[in-house]
Design goal:
Strand content: 5-15%
Number of strands: 5
Largest sheet: 5 strands, parallel
Bound molecules: flavin mononucleotide
CATH topology: Rossmann fold
Radius of gyration: 19 Å
Number of domains: 1
Order of helices and strands: EHEHHEHEHEHHHH
Strand order of the largest sheet: 2-1-3-4-5
CATH superfamily: Flavodoxin domain
């Protein structure tokens, strides 16, 4: 199986340790590709909207985005991690998510995403890890992913893993290993189940795309939906099952 990990920091701090514990259960049987931000996607979205209006290859950061996207599309499991910075995901993680706005369902979601599983790992010192996880989950769910595991942690004592009390480290490891077991057991030859909320979001976007495609058949998003067959009877969660 393939796992793609996007780390919202380059620091090998507590978030890194939590991610390493989670991945331990997969090490023997998975190809794991990791990206570290901001190194692997250093540019900010400048709001040029070229990705949406002219195509994703016209983005000034296309070289970075294409590479990460290819890896995400090839992954059976996507792992996203971030420490909490001022109650949210890191700016580097947000910058990456902004670059994938064109993959949100109201634009040009990738059909492969509807069959994927993802895990989000966030941590903070006192408060905000849930809010940071929500920042990431929001994007993943709008990319079309329904099956998302979330692990949030408030270390409450120190910002260095080795300085955390032994008991606390064991407790966190136990919880992460339990989550890892849940994801290790999955039969990844079968795509994930698409939930009702995702299907409803898709339906609403489909109505919007039907109208915009009728109004302007050259508009990129509408053309993409038509080419995918989504303005007809084809659905991305069925495409994911047929791949
Ligand atoms: C810029 C910045 C903002 C932070 N904001 C919060 C916060 O809102 N809530 C919190 O509990 N901890 C906050 N922290 C603490 C970090 O979440 C904490 O130190 C964490 O362990 C850092 O993760 P790392 O060890 O993986 O680098 C912040 C740290 C930094 C550097």
């Amino acid at each position: 199986m393939n796992i793609t990990v996007i780390n919202g920091t380059e620091k090998h701090g507590i978030t890194y340790q939590l991610k390493e514990i989670f991945l331990t259960a997969f090490r023997d049987n998975a190809n794991i590709t990791e990206y570290y931000l901001p190194k692997d996607c250093p540019g900010f979205c400048t709001g040029c909207t070229n990705c949406i209006l002219k195509g994703e290859t016209t983005c000034k950061d296309a070289e970075y985005i294409r590479k990460i996207e290819k890896s995400l599309l090839e992954a059976d499991l996507i792992v996203m991690t971030t420490p909490t910075y001022v109650y949210h995901a890191t700016g580097a993680m947000k910058a990456l998510l902004d670059h994938f706005a064109y993959r949100w369902m109201p634009h040009r979601p990738a059909p492969e995403m509807f069959g994927k599983r993802a895990v989000i790992i966030t941590q903070c010192l006192g408060a905000g890890a849930k809010s940071a996880a929500k920042d990431i989950k929001h994007s993943l769910s709008w990319w079309g992913i329904s099956n998302i595991g979330v692990f949030t942690c408030a270390v409450m004592s120190d910002i260095v893993w080795e300085n955390l009390p032994e008991k606390r480290r064991a407790q966190l490891s136990g919880k992460l290993k339990k989550l890892a077991q849940k994801f290790v057991k999955i039969n990844y030859t079968k795509p994930a189940y698409t939930n009702l909320i995702t299907k409803l979001k898709f339906s609403a976007c489909r109505m919007m795309q039907q109208a915009s495609h009728k109004n302007d058949p050259e508009y990129l998003d509408g053309k993409y939906w038509a080419e995918q067959g989504w303005l007809g009877k084809t659905r991305p969660w069925k495409q994911a099952h047929n791949q």
